[in-house]
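README, section 4: Worked example with a bound small molecule

Sections 1 through 3 covered apo chains. Here we extend the same pipeline to holo records, where the ligand is supplied as SMILES alongside the sequence. The molecule in this example is NAP. Nothing else about the input changes; the structure line simply encodes the ligand pose together with the chain.
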Amino acid sequence: MNLLVTGGTGFIGSELCRQLTRRGKHRVYCLTRKNTPIKKIKNLGIPLKDPGEALALAKQFRRLKINGVIHLAGYFVASHKTEDIAPLLESNISLGLRLADAAAQAGVPWFINTGTFWQRHDNQAGMPASLYAATKQAFEDILKFYQNSNALKVVTMELYDTYGPGDRRKKLFYWLDRAVATGETLAMSPGRQKMNLVHLEDVVGAYLRLIALIHSSSSRLESNYCIGLSRFLSLREVVQIYSQARGKKIKVQWGGRPYRDEEFMNPKHAYPVVPGWKPKYVSLKHGLAAIFKEQ
Ligand SMILES: NC(=O)c1ccc[n+]([C@@H]2O[C@H](COP(=O)([O-])OP(=O)(O)OC[C@H]3O[C@@H](n4cnc5c(N)ncnc54)[C@H](OP(=O)(O)O)[C@@H]3O)[C@@H](O)[C@H]2O)c1
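The generated complex, written as structure tokens:
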């Protein structure tokens, strides 16, 4: 297959590109920004500069005979400032819209989108908890037009939290690693919020499975799937499991900071998992043990 992946330099996209190219069955094109250094994409796929408008993209899609788009590019910010508005609109709405329209014009059969559980705060559909989630929701709504007019087969993957080797994002495990290294006390919320942490290898496994299914015209697919484990863990449990896996005590001041204004305390799955997807790391304990063994 000839596949177009966006977000190929990101945490999930880079591993997906690696897996797709390793299999040797696919030609993988990575959409890059105009100023992305080519070395950032090296070994991940064939770089394709975003021409910035749908007509030129459609021409490229026809020329390269693209069979499907996997859209992972996105701009994340938990709590936005004014200067985040432009990148939120560009990365989470305009870019995707250009791609979907180009794909529809060029007769690309399918489009895999990526959403977040933050789009349904307190388990209510279409209730974004942040401007980031609102832009993701807006784009998912836009895609319904392309889906309903039969221009594209569209599926959205809903992600919870992810972790894995080589994770440089300043998220929970970054701060836990730092607390281990420095011995400092971490001020955290009371820690009762539930999380669903999926290992990068399993996240990518879900995309690989969906790509195979969506490409086979006989598969009947839902419009949304989630990439989540059956068990949710509280933040306190996550810290405890991490501490056991590292064999180090972490000093945490629970309640040292308040919950976020829009904390999502008890998320529940809204969508099924991709048919046939079987996560390798069904527990955080095993996923973390595998990462620490490699280090
Ligand atoms: N990771 C999670 O836990 C999680 C949870 C829920 C949802 N998601 C969603 O999953 C997707 C992938 O997440 P991630 O953690 O892998 O993201 P990431 O590491 O932050 O990477 C973001 C990617 O998007 C690209 N990008 C952003 N704006 C772009 C633009 N305007 N044009 C071209 N490329 C652009 C970045 O390219 P540059 O290198 O050029 O910046 C980068 O490759 C995102 O859509 C995110 O919203 C992730």
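What to look for in the output: Residues 85-106 form the longest helix (22 residues). The helical segments are 11-22, 54-63, 85-106, 131-148, 172-182, 200-215, 235-246, 284-294.

Section 5 describes how to batch many such records.
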